[in-house]
Design a protein that fits this description.
Keywords: Carbohydrate metabolism, Isomerase, Metal-binding. By secondary structure, the protein is an alpha/beta fold. It is built from eight helices and eight strands; from the N terminus they run E-H-E-H-E-H-E-H-E-E-H-E-H-E-H-H. An eight-stranded parallel beta sheet has the order 1-8-7-6-5-4-3-2.
Amino acid sequence: MVKIAPSLLACDFAELKQEVTRVKESGADILHFDVMDGQFVPNISIGLPILESLRKVTDMMIDTHLMIENPEQMIDAFCEAGSDMVSVHFEATPHIHRAIQQIKAHHKLAGVVINPGTPVESLSQILGDVDFVLIMTVNPGFGGQSFIESTLSKITWLDEYRNEHDLNFEIEVDGGVNEETGALCKAQGADILVAGSYYFKHEDYKEPVHKLKGD
């Protein structure tokens, strides 16, 4: 069964505690926490104080997506603040193996992320070391963008690669996910669907979870 990870970037931050409670009650599996530095991506978002507060009010798994330059400088802090999963962009550091091992040293799930313009084959040397791969299906930095369908082939490639090499990393997808695009991703082998605008626009948060899971 596919896992659903609502992206808090699209929630009402004035009602953060209530939003997180509703996310859990909806049957979602993971909280997706986007961190942007205004350098690697052209936007600035939430950071350590919000994560620390969030960790105090929920026992849900928190998936921290670092959209930042030189992620090695901040990995320790985000791991210690309460993340359960931490992912770094392949494009953000020349030392991707070091970054992955740094996350694992905290006994967290470690992930690598690639942008739509990065060839998925570039990840072949790191796939044996990661717990999950996050495929960006929009260009990172802003919510509410349209799904880039050409990224579906990356999911297919990853699914075939892990089967061929007997690996067990999960495939996560983020960007423009809704009922239709989510179904396309699942058909190609995706395990985790990140949904922001689509998820939080529903008054009944259980509805998008059921639709994305295909219940």
